[in-house]
Amino acid sequence: MNSKFYVCNRxxxxxxxxxxxxxxPDNHQAKFVVEIIDELDVSVIENKYARNGGxxxxxxxxxxxxxxxxxxxxYSSRKIEKATxxxxxxxxxxxxxxxxxxxIATFRKNFSGMLEGIFLQILKIAQAAGCLTLGNVSLDGSxxxxxxxxxxxxxxxxxxxxxxxxxxxxxxxxxxxKQADQEEYKQEFxxxxxxxxxxxxxxxxxxxxxxxxxxxxxxxxxEAQDYKEAMEKRAAKEAAGKKCKGKPPKEPSYExxxxxxxxxxxxxxxxxxxxxxxxxxxxxNAQVVVDQNSMLIIANHVTQHTNDKQEVEPALAGIKxxxxxxxxxxxxxxxxxxxxxxxxxxxxxxxxxxPLIAENREKHNTWLKTxxxxxxxxxxxxxxxxxxxxxxxxxxxxxTREGRKIYAKRKSTVEPVFGSVKHxxxxxxxxxxxxxxxxxxxxxxxxxxxxxxxxxxxxxxxxTASC
Length: 467
Prior knowledge:
The protein is of the alpha/beta class and 467 residues long. 51% of the residues lie in helices and 10% in strands.
């Protein structure tokens, strides 16, 4: 009988492809990941496995599952294990094997700290493929949620209040214990268990208080340096006969404030302001340096600092590592106003990198107005280089057409990376705790982004070449 619909018969006999490789098209991203991993030197990880004992799953296969998992937003080890059964792409990477979630989680925990070398190897592959040539780079950061709730944070004021309350309850329970020894009566609750619970809680609170005191001392030391510099400036003005405006700087304090707090789940994470909102989140500050031409990440790190002022030096250290690995030099680095300081400008110049950092927050839609006041000078013009003040040199470079053009590309190169990582790849929070573990996971995310981006670049080049 004729029908306008296809026949849907789930019991139809069929011959599957003879090899699992034929289950996917040749230009599939999973095949690309496997091809790249096959070119990597993973001996550093393989050598960590003991020679005795049973056979282990291949390192390249587990790396493939992790890399492809992060590319596709599959971060849970349980979901990756399930995908080796449900997903053709994961089944292909796993070669029809099914490592359990504990194996995957343990591999990520034990070896994600060894991926820095693999990160650089992938950059070398991109360079060899003609997709990466170091030149102008962009720096930016974004808050990534920690694996801890902000509601598990304990403030100094509340910690003192709880400590006092628990000590009072412990005294009361000790009195009840004495009465129980002297008199025979039915206890309404287990006194030893209640005592132990409060003593454990008291130990935890005192440990948190020590951490808050430590952070307050570190903050005081930083403030002392700022206070010293501010007082020296005021003294210099007064010596020159100038009047100092405003109140004198406040002396630093080494004592904790009532609002100082520490998270009981992940002590190394911090309360940070949420971008575009008045809300606060428990997070880390993740940083990336992105090549402007390819949009590949060439350096990354994670910090506990809320603002970006202190992140230029670590970024420059990462750039230096990439430059040494690729045997190329970056020309300039663009950053928003969050990175602006005289010291950061000098750090960039000391690293032979031209800084292009916004001094103030700029308004939108001012392109035409800005173009009218630009000069045709080059970034290395003599009258720029000969200026003794690094801030003046930056201002002059930012008023050139070349400088504005490079800085303008910052917004369209590094910011889309964070947008894609958070929205397309679905990475909004770390799955591991402590700064070291978060840094290792961010490196894994950066590798996944580079593989995703490199696949797009090489596919585009292949289409252009009609291959």
